[in-house]
Design goal:
- It is a single chain.
- This protein has 88 residues and is mainly alpha-helical.
- The protein is 61% helix and 0% strand.
- It contains six helices and no strands.
- Helix 3 packs across helix 5 and helix 4 runs antiparallel to helix 5.
- The model has no long low-confidence stretch (mean pLDDT 88).
């Protein structure tokens, strides 16, 4: 996958160019990025491409967000009590 496919609007690229960007701003940009991906784009692959390009900026808040998004989600746990028994 090419960088242009992984970041079609250049949102991630621009986030790395903003001095003093906050975690909250990066999260907002990340959501916009996720919504801008073309149908059929493999998100994990796009995240890997972006981290390969920008991941060297380890102290940047967007790097932490991209790494967290790439991490596998935690397996769901059964809820206890009556609600847990009723959900199945």
């Amino acid at each position: 996958m090419q960088l242009e496919e992984a970041d079609p609007k250049g949102l991630i690229r621009e986030s790395y160019n903003i001095d003093g960007i906050t975690d909250g701003e990066c999260r907002s940009i990340f959501i916009d990025w996720a919504l801008s991906l073309r149908a059929g784009t493999e998100t994990p692959e796009a995240l890997s491409v972006l981290l390969a390009r920008y991941g060297a900026a380890a102290d940047h808040p967007m790097t932490a967000i991209l790494e967290a998004a790439r991490a596998a989600p935690e397996a769901p746990r059964r809820r206890g009590g009556r609600i847990g028994r009723m959900a199945g």
